[in-house]
Specification:
- The protein is an alpha/beta fold.
- It has a single domain, classed as TIM Barrel (Alpha-Beta Barrel), CATH 3.20.20.220.
- The chain has eleven helices and ten strands.
- An eight-stranded parallel β-barrel has the order 1-2-5-6-7-8-9-10, surrounded by five helices. A two-stranded antiparallel sheet has the order 3-4.
- Helix 10 runs parallel beside helix 11.
- The structure holds flavin-adenine dinucleotide (FAD).
Length: 318
């Protein structure tokens, strides 16, 4: 299986097209998800990312009246979906691996599963805080920051396991990490955020995928600052087309991004979400054309289970 960085170096400057998908809610079928991905295969994504979702605590009242707190994973299945994607579409799957909810030992076992499946790309993340807690808390014996998880993967690539004395067969993971053109919401400043991003790359990250953004100037400034800080790895912009009026307020709340006034104005003029979706497509096409002219290595789309608008953008730019 090919590494993301190899796809980039072999592309001879041609912009790659890739997507991220989210596992279905527990109990739902995978068929719909795979069918939604299928039309996008026309644009030959070399890799498809699959997100990982930590457990959330639900509260259930027991017959005796007491409240039981039960940790459940609402979207399990990342590893299985990766296997299905590789089998059905002959693409490389890039599972996301997260610190949240995992001990180091559990992470090691998952990396071994991925290695056995022939997967050798991972996007390494800390993971979001549990919704009910609000601040990130690692599982006891787990990692606090993505940089620590990157170190663990790098060690496995050297054949170093956590507890075994003997040298193991080395894994061969190409490691991606997250970057935030508009700052990670917990970082006290842009300066510290760059400092920690640099630490992730120094620890062994081979490429960066950014948080979504709608204003290309934010991305350009981010790339320039990365280069000035000595971060030389490929930086792939993450993109999501605006598709509803509600997203004008929800996306900034969830992803801590800025909506350009021009996009807000155009979306607010729309009578319904069908029209907003069209505005989002047109914005996306312009955004992508500008990014391609800037020389980005790829365009990475957050599909969030819907592919028709991503398909239209791809048709408009490739
Ligand atoms: P880190 O790099 O660990 O940074 C977290 C915060 O801590 C930042 O504010 C950083 O500045 C700070 N920091 C870093 N190192 C240190 C240090 N040593 N000391 C003090 N502060 C430090 N979440 C999921 O749960 N599942 C997914 O599949 C998923 N996929 C994503 C894909 C992409 C492309 C992106 C951009 C995000 C994704 N997320 C996902 C969300 C991500 O987990 C959150 O944004 C999370 O809050 C931070 O993750 P990180 O890997 O950037 O963390």
């Amino acid at each position: 299986m090919t590494k993301v960085t190899e796809y980039i170096s072999q592309s001879n400057g041609k912009t790659l097209f890739s997507i991220e998908i989210i596992p279905p809610l527990k109990g739902q079928s995978i068929v719909q998800l795979l069918d939604s991905v299928e039309p996008l295969m026309e644009f030959k994504p070399p890799f498809v990312d699959v997100t990982y979702h930590r457990e959330e605590v639900i509260e259930k009242q027991q017959p005796n009246g007491l409240i039981q707190r039960i940790p459940i994973r609402k979207r399990p299945g990342t590893v299985g979906i990766c296997a299905r994607l590789m089998e059905r579409f002959k693409v490389d799957a890039v599972p996301h691996i997260i610190c949240g909810g995992f001990t180091r030992e559990e992470t090691e076992d998952m990396l071994i599963d991925l290695h056995y499946l022939g997967i050798n790309n991972v996007l390494v993340l800390r993971g979001d805080p549990e919704k009910s807690v609000g601040v990130f808390k690692p599982k006891e014996g787990g990692h606090c920051y993505a940089s620590e998880l990157i170190e663990q993967v790098v060690n496995m690539n050297k054949g170093i396991l956590l507890h075994e004395e003997t040298h193991a067969i080395p894994t061969n993971f190409c490691i991606g990490t997250a970057g935030y053109p508009e700052k990670h919401f917990e970082a006290v400043s842009m300066d510290t955020d760059f400092q920690y991003l640099k630490a992730k790359v120094d620890a062994g990250a081979d490429f960066i995928v950014t948080q979504m953004f709608f204003d290309n100037q934010m991305f350009f400034r981010f790339v320039e600052r990365c280069r000035a800080e000595g971060i030389t790895v490929p930086i792939i912009p993450g993109l999501k087309p605006l598709s509803t009026k509600k997203q004008l307020t929800i996306l900034p709340q969830i992803f801590h991004l800025n909506m350009p006034q021009e996009l807000v104005r155009e979306a607010e003029k729309c009578e319904d979400d069908k029209d907003v979706r069209q505005v989002g497509i047109e914005w996306g096409v312009q955004q992508c054309k500008e990014l391609m002219a800037y020389g980005v290595p790829g365009l990475h789309f957050y599909t969030m289970g819907k592919s028709d608008n991503v398909l239209k953008i791809a048709q408009g730019v490739f």
